[in-house]
Design a protein that fits this description.
- This protein is an alpha+beta fold.
- The protein has a single domain, classed as Alpha-Beta Plaits (2-Layer Sandwich).
- 30% of the residues lie in helices and 33% in strands.
- The chain is built from three helices and four strands.
- Strands 2-3-1-4 form a four-stranded antiparallel beta sheet.
- Strand 2 and strand 3 form a beta hairpin.
- It is globular, with a radius of gyration of 14 Å.
- The termini are far apart.
C-alpha cells in the first residue's frame, strides 16, 4: 500500500468545487482545506506506485481549477497511538 500526500494550490474562487471533485477520485481518501501557502492537502492511498501516478498526474492535475501540485510519498507510518502519545498534554 502506498500513501501520497499531495499539496494543491487552486483558483481561490473554485476551492470548494476543486476539493469536491478531487474527493470523488478513486484512490483519494481525504481532502483537507487548510491555511497557509497551500489550499488543499489530499491523501491518496493506493496499492502500487503506478497508481499514484494515475491518480495524481492523470486525474487530480486535470481537475479544472487546480493550479499547482506537490506530491510527497510516505515511506513510514506511525500508529495513531504513537502520535497521540507524542502530542499528549499529560491528560
Amino acid at each position: 500500500m502506498f500513501t501520497a500526500i499531495v499539496f494543491v494550490n487552486a483558483e481561490v474562487d473554485k476551492i470548494p468545487e476543486v476539493a469536491q471533485q478531487i474527493a470523488d477520485l478513486d484512490g483519494v481518501t481525504e481532502v483537507y482545506s487548510v491555511t497557509g501557502h497551500i489550499d488543499l492537502i489530499v491523501m491518496v492511498h493506493v496499492r502500487d506506485l503506478d497508481q499514484v501516478a494515475e491518480v495524481v498526474s492523470d486525474q487530480l492535475n486535470k481537475v479544472p481549477g487546480v493550479v499547482e501540485t506537490e506530491t510527497h510519498i510516505a515511506f513510514r507510518a506511525f500508529s495513531r497511538h504513537d502520535l497521540d502519545a507524542a502530542f499528549s498534554l499529560g491528560d
